[in-house]
Amino acid sequence: MKKYKSRLLEELSAEIHPLEQKKTDAKMILSAKIEDAMKAKGWNRSQLMNATGQKNLSMITKWLSGTHNFTTDTLVTIGHALGINLLNIQSEPSKPKHYIGLASGEMSQKGIQRSAITNGWINISKESNTILSEASILAQA
User: Fold this and answer.
1) Which domain holds residue 43?
2) How much is the CA Rg of the chain, to the nearest whole Å?
3) Which candidate among 5, 31, 118, 124 keeps its CA 20 to 30 Å from the CA of 103?
4) Which of the four pLDDT bands, split at 50, 70 and 90, describes residue 44?
């Protein structure tokens, strides 16, 4: 494939502010992810329109154009319909509710010969009846 070069295009590209280029890139990436997910599901624009509750195919065309400025609500709706995450955010685990601190060692006539301090947390989830835990050795003598 022959690459087209133009001095005018190069000059215009050089004038684009890096932040504006980043915004454009993000819109194009979102559009490509949506299209890739549609292809993976074997969907056309009409199927995405129905799955997202849109009334017109023109909105789907805008989404796939690479120039649409998406809202968070729209990205969540599209992602839900396609079974993908378009926001790239992750929920942070909730802060532990119960903390434990342990110290262990051996006692002798000379005092403690070996000791370790362990700090950790446990979090009991009511929803899944699971216990999440983490422990780390902070110091060892």
Assistant:
1) 17-82
2) 27
3) 124
4) very high
